[in-house]
Amino acid sequence: MSIENIERWSFRYGFLRKWIMLWQNYVFYKKIIVLNKENIPQNEHLIFAPNHQNALMDALAIATNLKRQPAFLARSDIFNKPFIANLLYLFKMLPVYRIRDGIDTIGNNKKTFEKTIDIITNKNGLIILPEGNHSKFRRLQVLKKGICRIAFQSEESRNFNLNIKIIPIGLDYSNHQNARSILVIKFGKPIEVRKFKELYLENPQKGMRALKEEISDRIKELMLHIETSQYYDLYNRIRLIYGSKMAKNQGINEYKQPLALEVDQKTVNVLNKYNDKFGDRLDNLKEKVEKFTQLSTKLNIDHQVLENEPLSFINLLLKSLAALLFLPVFIYGFINNFLPFYIPERLSGIFNDKQFHSSVKFVLSMLLFPIFYLIQTLLVSFLPLSGFYTAGYFLSLPASGAFALYYANNVKKLRTGWKFFFLHAKKDKQLLSLSDIHNSIITEMDEIFSWFRKQETGTTP
Fold this sequence. Notes:
This protein has helices spanning 11-28, 56-63, 82-90, 109-121, 146-157, 197-202, 204-222, 232-241, 243-249, 259-278, 282-299, 303-306, 313-325, 327-348, 357-381, 387-425, 429-457, and strands at 31-35, 46-50, 71-75, 93-96, 126-127, 165-173, 182-187, 191-192. It is α/β, with parallel strands linked by helices.
């Protein structure tokens, strides 16, 4: 596939997409939750507009969870090598040239914009990351005009008869860098571009600005948007520390996705209202959270541990015996899966921008695990064993790898459990201090939420 026919249905793309979707949805992520997919119109001219916090993973999240074969725009500097460019075209990626790429390259965008019109008119769908660049913050950046320009130019080319719809999308990652995290994809209701036709024809800049504001507002409704810079760390930490309590305040039994996103949005909304009313009063809460974070990191005991009573000695002992019993299975899985797991982890660290870590881990793991499994199975096949044992070995590789990861995570929790048990038993001063700070944070947040409730019901002047 080349840029000339990128809008056409591709069997090769379809095959690769299936493999990427399998690895992404069932291996790399612990869970992917797709919400409101019914908001996507069928057989329409669509542009998909997600927030951008996680490099390549944002576009892949959308592309692999749609039935169509959408194309998406990417920064031009990754197309520099002809071989890489052809590979990217195979994945239906189009280059966008920026001023930083050289003023003389901007003219190349004309061809890209022409192809986007072909893609949209063929109803495959176009994915545009309207922020233009990813950010580590859980916040929507100011959108670029590109998405609006493409939408209006496409409509103009067909006398505004396409009725292009832009689908705002919110992406929420439980952890941006690590594998086995949870991803929520939330589709919003379509935005009709022709709603802004008259304003655009009267003044193109005003029309694009109005459409851009509409897209921005709608994406913010679908994601966790922490706009404040002064209290960003406070908001981001409080939503976790107070998450379980806030969920109960809203009649939700458990603080977990997909409802956790709504809970977090409510927490941010409450803090925003309180900050607007009282300003510097949040400084006290900020100081408490900073102290809690420092001590929590030092003791390696988080708020989730403090929210529960320590496990009993018998319980911890039984868990430890079970861990010892299954240690050989872990060792087997660890040895047989070490290299394809370690290499992506190691190489991702080369990138200073941590938002690339997840993308590097994903791509390399998707390639290396099958390759290593085949090589290892081939080596085993040379041993004087029957084909039955060779097949059994091959099947054991992914199962033992999954168990090794599960085992390692549970042993880490078990170590924390033992530490919490002994510190609690001897009434360690630092643990008591951590618990007191945690309780103080919860109490202050209860008061802030109570104030917010009174404001909502109109019982406070």
